[in-house]
């Protein structure tokens, strides 16, 4: 199947136009707004369509009709159940409206994300779902120019103007940090993914500092360790914290995967959780409740977020109006891994 | 951004042709094989391209050049790390060759998978990666007709003719079942995903029966419980087995997620693993080694499979030849959850 053979085997809009002796615009019109075309022309075009076996949904229709019923989404990773669950609900809701989801996974790489956004637009996605606000303004300009409605999920920041269906990462972590501080913790460390190009992680780190300030403590006391998301990296980061700041009594991780790594490292070091050290997570994915001890974390309504995001995009494609941003509530799940600070 | 506005805002190949006063075929040639077009024509076309702000990679180029540098893949679920890991490696290798991966997740639904395959082809995917062999012959005919090279992964079955980069699910599970039987187990149950449209799960179940036959035992003795993949469903299936067949001494699960559920149910029922009952998994994803007790399972070379699958598809796009199938070896990971059968 060489390029040439493929070219021969797939008839194009231009082939139809040529055979029917009309312009390509007329072919498009016949396929998409047949009532706007005279009967004779329509019959001639449809005859050519059938004769050539032209399949209007092979790209050409996308160009002609600007309706592909395909929605694109770029997520930072497939390796975290948080996105798998949310996007599954997103896809189910899209499916109920006859839309197909095409997905790309950027591996938290801003450049790769841009390439994937451009590919999805080039492949005719009607609309896009993106995770978080952080990206080059040039990308948003590109999407506006192309007229591709774009919705942000996983973040809700009242200071941002773009439409989002998400939650306030900073406020959610602030609430958990208040509970940590209320248990007598002062020497708090934070294990986070790199915060550059990741407003969710950055917001969560800021939330811890906010709570320190509220409690009359110095936010600079929070030891921050940045490492890529992972169980192994969480383990290493935990060891680093305990080596550099052995007085730490609570380690707040910006997601559950890092926190599970921290729990493993604690066990390996012979530290009891929460008696010797408290550990908290964020997301409330399945492993949070499976961990031993069970992980205290922030529950994120992934499935509801996915479902509502799909509804919002379906609305904008139907009605041409992108609605207001929607903030979803998060909840603290108090389990076993947070306890009172040990005595100094 | 109504359909009309979008139509107005995005210039088409036909717009360029009209402004340059040439055929659309000439525009395509200018963009894709400029040396095949006279200098004057080329300059006129490129002037029109620039004037209109025509972006050749918006679908039109796909139609014109049949080269989108986009590879499609349909996986059964995002909610299992096994696919996340394998596809991440697949994507990384594609990226090294300038290809972008667009993904769809079928939720183990054959009809949805077909819809997604058609959408990926309609959106111009140069080639496809599909998981397992099982699907309607009509879909394979459709892909052949459209000239879209398609590679199977996650399965390798010498009896099949389609090109695959995968492993022999049946032989891999047979090897593990031999070890289970060698530990004195005879009353073996199997917890599996529905085997219809899932040759991987079906092969693994058959592998257990094969080992029973080899050992001179009746393969019909294996109690089979089908349930969707999940930790919760694995728990329920374990309870069902123990309620219906309390003599069971080993439960072989066709993936690690089900097996982790089985371990949880065993603990909840006060059964010690492996003293009272042995549990095995398949895949060797991260939770297998994190489980307590650590899970005996079959290690699948996800990342290598993803990398090799990408190389194979890149080759076929370059050289027009789909190579031979490639079988990758699996390995048994003996951990703590398999032990000798308890005395009757």
TrEMBL record, chains A, B:
Signal peptide: none annotated. SUPFAM superfamilies: lambda repressor-like DNA-binding domains (SSF47413), Periplasmic binding protein-like I (SSF53822). Gene3D superfamilies: 3.40.50.2300, lambda repressor-like DNA-binding domains. It comes from the Bacteria. Residues 11-65 form the HTH lacI-type domain. Pfam families: LacI, Peripla_BP_3. InterPro entries: HTH_LacI, LacI/GalR-like_sensor, Lambda_DNA-bd_dom_sf, Peripla_BP_I. GO terms for molecular function: DNA-binding transcription factor activity; transcription cis-regulatory region binding. The keyword Translocase does not apply. The keyword Transcription applies. Keywords: DNA-binding, Transcription, Transcription regulation. This is HTH-type transcriptional regulator GntR. It comes from Pelagimonas phthalicica. The lineage of its organism: Bacteria, Pseudomonadati, Pseudomonadota, Alphaproteobacteria, Rhodobacterales. The gene is gntR_2.
């Amino acid at each position: 199947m060489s390029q040439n053979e493929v070219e021969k085997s797939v008839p194009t809009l231009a082939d139809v136009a040529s055979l029917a002796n009309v312009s390509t615009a007329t072919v498009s019109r016949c396929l998409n707004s047949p009532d706007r075309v005279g009967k004779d022309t329509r019959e001639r075009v449809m005859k050519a369509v059938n004769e050539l076996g032209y399949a209007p949904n092979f790209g050409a229709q996308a160009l002609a009709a600007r309706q592909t019923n395909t929605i694109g989404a770029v997520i930072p990773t497939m390796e975290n159940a948080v996105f798998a669950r949310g996007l599954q609900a997103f896809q189910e809701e899209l499916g109920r409206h006859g839309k197909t989801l095409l997905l790309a996974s950027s591996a938290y790489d801003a450049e790769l994300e841009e390439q994937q956004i451009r590919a999805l637009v080039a492949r005719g996605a009607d609309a896009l779902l993106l995770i978080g606000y952080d990206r080059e303004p040039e990308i948003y300009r590109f999407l506006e120019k192309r007229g591709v409605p774009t919705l942000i999920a996983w973040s809700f920041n009242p200071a941002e103007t773009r439409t989002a269906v998400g939650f306030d990462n900073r406020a959610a972590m602030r609430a958990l940090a208040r509970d940590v501080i209320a248990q007598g913790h002062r020497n708090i460390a934070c294990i986070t993914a790199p915060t550059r190009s990741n407003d969710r992680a950055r917001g969560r780190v800021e939330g811890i500092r906010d709570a320190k300030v509220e409690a009359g403590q110095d936010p600079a006391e929070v030891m921050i360790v940045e490492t890529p998301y992972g169980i192994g990296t969480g383990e290493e980061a935990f060891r680093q914290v305990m080596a550099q700041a052995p007085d730490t009594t609570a380690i707040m991780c910006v997601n559950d995967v890092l926190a599970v790594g921290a729990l493993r490292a604690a066990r390996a070091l012979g530290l009891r959780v929460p008696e010797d050290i408290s550990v908290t997570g964020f997301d409330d994915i399945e492993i949070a409740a499976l961990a031993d001890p069970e992980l205290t974390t922030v529950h994120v309504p992934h499935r509801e977020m996915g479902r509502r995001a799909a509804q919002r995009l379906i609305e904008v494609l139907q009605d041409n109006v992108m609605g207001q941003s929607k903030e979803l509530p998060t909840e603290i799940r108090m389990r076993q891994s947070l306890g009172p600070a040990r005595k100094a």
